[in-house]
């Protein structure tokens, strides 16, 4: 299953459908993985096509890459 629970009780402006940052500047994915008892590679691999995500960073020459979950099962 591709499910996750995130505690947002201390984030008053959070609503259903809000965007969230799961890891990034100030919170490295390696730290999140350690807290989850896994490795960063596993966290990235578990982001399925159903999950909308946006990757930003100098590693991509300052480009922004987005993957939409609005694709059909053939990848189109």
Number of strands: 2
Structural class: alpha+beta
Poorly predicted residue ranges:
71-76
Mean pLDDT: 76
Can you tell me the overall shape? globular
Strand order of the largest sheet: 1-2
* Helix/strand order, N-terminal first: HHEE
As a whole number of angstroms, the C-alpha radius of gyration is 14 Å
- Termini separation comes to 23 Å
- How much of the sequence lies in strands comes to 5-15%
Instruction: List the quaternary state of the chains.
Output: single chain
Largest sheet: 2 strands, antiparallel
Number of helices: 2
Q: Helix proportion of residues, in percent?
A: 10-25%
Task: Give keywords.
76 residues; alpha+beta; two-stranded antiparallel ribbon; 2 helices; 11% strand; disordered C terminus
Question: What's the structural blueprint in terms of helices and strands?
Answer:
Layout: H1 29-36, H2 40-45, E1 53-56, E2 64-67
Report on this model:
It contains 2 helices and 2 strands. The chain has 76 residues and is of the alpha+beta class. The protein has a domain of 39 residues. Strands 1-2 form a two-stranded antiparallel ribbon. Strand 1 and strand 2 form a beta hairpin. 0% of the residues are buried. The C terminus is likely disordered.
């Amino acid at each position: 299953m591709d499910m996750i629970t995130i505690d947002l009780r201390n984030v008053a402006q959070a609503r259903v459908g809000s965007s969230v940052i799961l890891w990034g500047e100030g919170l490295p994915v390696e730290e999140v993985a350690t807290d989850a008892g896994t490795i960063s590679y596993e966290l990235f691999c578990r982001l399925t096509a159903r999950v909308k995500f946006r990757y930003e960073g100098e590693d991509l020459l300052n480009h922004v890459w987005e993957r939409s979950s609005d694709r059909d099962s053939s990848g189109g």
